[in-house]
Fold these 2 entries.
Entry 1:
Amino acid sequence: MEDTELPNMNEGEELYVRAGEAALLLGVYRDTLLDWDRPYKFPCDGRLAPNGDRLYLRSRVLSYKAELEQMKKAKVARKNEDYYNEDSQISKSPPSTLTCPEKLTLSDARKFLDISFTKMTMLINQGIIPYETNPLDSRVKLVKRSDLEKLLSKNAASQRYS
């Protein structure tokens, strides 16, 4: 196999890369890169390889990669900021039924009791923990927090005397 050199690949300091290599550098699929070319989000540099493949300036690809990474970091920072702002608003607000609900779903109750899914199912089926269905969604079962606290206090009292 002979080494085929692309014409005009090295003009001065400019290095060109094919679409597949540019896609690898950007961390996207080749088809995605070619889709970006259509709305001029990231058009090729107007050159074609002998096989008809589009060519991109390597420096331009790397600068666009840095720009994409900055956009991702900014997006993550905004999400974190929104999360922490919501968290701080909740902590500043007075206690309400939203922050300390009277009724919990089974999964929240299971976390509250720190028990397994199987153990929770057994307690519900045996009637040890009474429940009612959610009026908004009949698939969801709700448990009173007071019932869970009573169960925890009974458990703690029985462990003390054992």
Entry 2:
Amino acid sequence: MQFSGNSHLTGVNTGKPGLIPFIRWTEILSIQNDMKKTICIVFLNIFIPLLVGVIIYLWIDRDVYFLRVLKDLGLIGSGSESLGKIADLIRNYGCDLLWAYALSFALLLTLAPDYMQALFFCIGFETVMEGIQIIPSVSGTFDWRDLLLEWAVSISVFMYYKMKGNEHEKNN
């Protein structure tokens, strides 16, 4: 296929046949800006929640070496019982919340604009992953509260972005 013009870098159309379509620098910069936005959105909404969840899980887990060292140094005393309960809540449910958000957002990006298909896939995946923890040979503990939290997060994410999409369509 031949295109009119041969300078896609300068935006000058010479009228001579070429192999590359006529593209202006502003179009290239626009594509680059869209890619940067997409990368930033993916980083903030998928990778950061996953990373924070892993850090919380590792840092708050009682068997982590770092916490034993702090206890041995006397930096964490016996008066931290209330912090322990809060830390357990954050470890047990905060990580699930972050991971469910990251999964929901990743599926939203992958399967949009079919919100219902993405939501059903997300809820199904969360149910299977929590459900297999009933099997004794699988690591983890089944907790119906984890499942309810993950479903609530997923439904909230999809409802929010569905409303944002409807709002965007009304404005355009």
